[in-house]
Structure formats: structure tokens, C-alpha cells
Amino acid sequence: MTYNGGKYTARQAHTACVGCGWNPVAAPSLWQAGGDCTGGGDPPPPTGSGIAAILSESTFNTMFPGRNGFYTYSALVAAANTFPSFATSGDTATRKREVAAFLANISHETGGLVYIEEINKSVMCDTSWGPPGCGCAAGKWYYGRGPIQLSWNGNYCAAGNALGVDLKNNPDLVAQNATIAWRTGFWFWTTQTGAGSMTGHNAIVNGAGFGETIRTINGALECNGRNPAQVQSRINNYTRFLGLLGASAVGNNGC
Fold it and tell me: What pTM did the predictor assign?
């Protein structure tokens, strides 16, 4: 739509109401600056390679209408491109499922990409596991940060080693640098089995199903009937994102 000489795109569906004050100034949460008012219809298709060929910025904004500005689309794409297997493995339908599955889980972890840091913070230091020499730096806390809510010193050390960033001594980087934050999410997704038996990436690419991604990320607390409401929340995200990307599920959604 146009308003006072500017162009705006609706962030979510709503019915126009004369006199309701639903203009971009009165209701900024409903509108994003910019857009094409010449023809209407569907948004332009994604362009580029990797995740950018599957997920357009407009669809990303539709998925996360209330997201924190920290979680930018540009940082998401830049981070994903450093993990060559992500959103490039298998046919187009498989690639769409992987993008939907990853985003569905991180949406659940962050309240729709609203939270950068865990609400209930604690030190989360345990030196009984993790890479060699991975202790806890003095005064540093290793609570959940970023889209996957990276937690515990062992994971910060392992992710930092893989990414070439000193996250042991500076875990706050995950909450300060958007590209690093996204990269920790892709690191976990493509390389870690967590509480499961396979990575999130392999669960989707090999057809095991979305449920196995839940098991990998938080299966010890949610799967096998431990917290069905949390599992269903993730599944609801996945189903909605699949619809936005024009794909359907394969394998079991639940765990």
C-alpha cells in the first residue's frame, strides 16, 4: 500500500477497517517499509544459491513478523553460506524441508527470533565434558545465546574451535555479532547429534523426519512423552514454514 507518499508491505494478513487507525504510523507492527505497489500478487521468488535460493527475505519476514532486529536476513544468509551442505543437499523439496526444520526449531528456542539470550540465566559450567582444555573462563557464564540458544561451556568451546572464534573467553560474542550467532546455530545443526543419534541436517536429508531434529536439539527434555506440548509447538512451526515454502513433510514429525 501507499501512505503519505511512502510504500509499505503488510507483515501479516489483516482486514482493512476504515477509521481503525491501522496505518503504518499508528500500527507499525503490521507494516514493513518498502514494497511494490504496481501489481500485487505473490512476492518475488527467492534468488541466489544455498539458503537464498529457498528463502526470500520477504518470506523470512513473514515467518518472523516480530523478530528482534539482531537476527537479520543478511547475517542468516552469510552464516549459512559458510556451511556448504546446508540447504544444498538433495532435491528442491528436501532443501525446503531442511530450511523449514531449522527455522522451526530456532523459532521455538527464541520465541520467534525475539530473544537473543536465555531469560533464566545461570553459569552453566561443567568441566566433565567438552574439548580438551575447555574449562570455564573467570567470570563468564555459558547460558543460552543465539538462535539455537547455545549452552554450556563445552558447546561454546567446541563451536568456537570449529568457527575460529574464542567463545570460551568471550561467550557474549554470540549475543553481539549476528553472523557468529547464526553460525553457532548452523554449527550445531550440521555437526552435532546432541541427545539424538544424528545431526539435524542428516535427519532431514536422509528422510528420518522432523522429529529426529527435535530429539537432537532437546530430546532429553521433550521426547518420549516428556513434554508433548513443547514438541507440538515445534511441529506447528514446521508445518507453517513448510506451507510458506511450498513443501510437505517426510518421515515422522514427532519424537
Answer: 0.82
